[in-house]
Amino acid sequence: YLLLFLFFVTMKNDPSAFQALERIFHEKSRLAIVACAAELPEGISFIELRETCGMTDGNLKAHLNALEGASIIATHKELHEGRARTIVTLTAEGREQFIAYLLTLEDALRAAAKSAGVAQERGRILSPKLREA
Prior knowledge:
There is one protein chain. The protein has helices at about 1-15, 15-20, 25, 30-40, 45-55, 55-70, 90-115, 130; strands spanning about 45, 75-80, 85-90. It has about 130 residues and is α+β, with helices and mostly antiparallel strands. A three-stranded antiparallel sheet has the order 1-3-2. α1 (about 1-15) packs across α7 (about 90-115).
């Protein structure tokens, strides 16, 4: 509920703060997919993604199609133990867009927290690992 409160406070005081967020990342399933792909630069299998994100095959495929259409992720097939499997990787462009999204989200939440009187100064949320990969 606190996030909803912060969202409404920020929208009232600065509607552009949340409007700058990329919609492609803002859906929770897509955010989970991209976060998993960002964590594993060598790629993650479709099955691992499905299990980690708790999605059905069809739901995951639909989200992957949207992300691939936006050039955020790339998929390819590889053989593993004699069977083809789909590997999902975050593209360089997708990584840049995801980092920009996270920084924008952080700024929006920080502004919302300040408006609500609960702000605490903290460093950037991005780990060096994500920035460098």
